[in-house]
């Protein structure tokens, strides 16, 4: 099995990226056999239908990585109670058919939703919107558990995530997601 994580923030010291790294560590303890990677996508350009054909190289690469994944694990903050613009842009590229004969890569894909924010919502608003977008794209969303961590800075020291209180929830989501992917295949 291979799981591809997508951190919804491009910030170098992103809490959500650190959360994705912590998820990889949790998964490795539970299931060392699972191949886990975090997608690099900061080179994906703005969606522009004039530039769709042929697809930019970065878009082809991320589509291939998503296509190969047995499951996607999203870790996203929210910007103004919404999906961060860069992440929405990535999903917009992924939403388009690969070619005349090959559809878009999110259809049927098992997806788990996690995220953190410094405010009290834990990025739950963005997750609600992600459910809408991903449902429209026929992804298979794991509705429970979702992980929304509020006040994430209280679980960090000098910007480094310690993830004290939330670690068990991350482990539970990891375990449940592996079973969810198994059931879908
Ligand atoms: C934020 N932040 C934020 N936090 C929150 O709890 N609710 C919100 O609606 C917003 N809105 C928002 C908009 C924009 C444009 C920025 C840049 C930030 C704060 C956010 O939670 C914080 O910056 C996180 O650290 C972002 O996640 P990463 O980059 O650490 O993963």
UniProtKB/TrEMBL annotation:
Domain NADPH-dependent FMN reductase-like spans what residues? 1-152
SUPFAM superfamilies on file: Flavoproteins (SSF52218)
InterPro entries (UniProt xref): Flavoprotein-like_sf (IPR029039), FMN_Rdtase-like_dom (IPR005025), NAD(P)H-dep_reductase (IPR050712)
Organism domain of life: Bacteria
GO MF annotation terms? FMN binding; oxidoreductase activity
Annotated coiled-coil positions are none
Q: Which Pfam families match?
A: FMN_red
GO cellular component terms, alphabetically, are: cytosol
Descriptive protein name: NAD(P)H-dependent oxidoreductase
